[in-house]
Amino acid sequence: MTAPLKLALISRRYPPLIGGAERVFAYLAEALAREGADVSVLTSAIDEAAASPDLEAVAVPRAKPGGRLTIHRLPTSPLRFVGTLVYMRNLKTWLRRNEIDLAYVSMLKHDAYVAVGVGRNQGFPVVLRPEGAGETGDVAWQNRANFGRLIAARCRRADAFVAISKAVRLELGGAWYDGSKIHDLPNGVPIPRQAWQRRPNWREAPHAVFVGRLAVEKNLAALIRAWPIVRQSFPTARITLVGEGPQRPALEGFVRDLGLADGTVALPGATDDVEPLLRSADLFVLPSTEEGMSVALLEAMALGVPVVASAIPGNRRLIADFKHGRLAAPQPDALARAIVEQWTHFDRAFHMSRAARSRVEQQFSITAMARKHLQLFQELIAKHAHRPT
Fold first, then answer.
1. What is the pTM of this model?
2. Short-list 60, 140, 68, 154, CA closest to 105
3. Are 265 and 239 in contact (CB under 8 A)?
4. Residues 143 and 283 in one domain
């Protein structure tokens, strides 16, 4: 029997730390293990993750022979710069001491710098995965961060790069990354067995949900401004903004100033299980001004929840207006109109939600994405093995 591939998946942040990049990386780690890979996740023991075990064997249902998933939380420090250096040192030590076939790294940052350096010395290929584009993306970070240009120079020496969106591919090309090494592999999500069902008495208190980071690019201030307009048509409508982030204090103040702090607009914090929240909702709303490929939007579509999303390139890649959901300009009036239309014509919204679920099943399932990743990894490993020494 062929030995399972030994893969190191590297991400400084990993669940229970929650964000779109963290969720999709965790989905992929489990899916790769289910396909028979021996997956070691290397991450840092920071923030909420500090209370988790340093070494955790994760049960993977229906895994093929040899498939397993182990999480290694490497020691770090809560001090900002010291913590980065300690984490980099421990990551380098782990990679040197453990035999792996390939390393796959989330983001073009310090983790990638370490992995590419060790990979070239130890003889294993390294694949890098930028998690976004634009002002909050990886290339922009390299351009402004301390030592960012030094990190970029080494990152360009990786064996391959995964582009989750066209915007990411274009940015990599514009930053002198070798286009022949860029592979288009979009995000994937699990497909729930049971689709979302509308609540019988939803009109009594229509409920919308946003899931994501509370950050400027998510455009949540515009969504909050839209809510008094929505309530002109649906007076009992409420919305829950699920997540954490730097904008929380400002958004909470904004909610109070608009008189919406009576439960109309709720900010309950982050959660590591979004499915129950989505099932309890009557609409998913994503008002972002910037997205690569939103994991939260994919999750809502995979479940079959009706959606309203901003009409930006990343969202247009997933949603055709009036086919899979509604697209709207990322301004309060336009968002409010689309939300009201979805609830006013809820039968139509329901049918669009089923088309959205079907699209994710066919094109963005995590199982399909894991198999495409494995094909890439095997090609790189074989190519690496035949390199002259």
1. 0.88
2. 154
3. yes
4. no
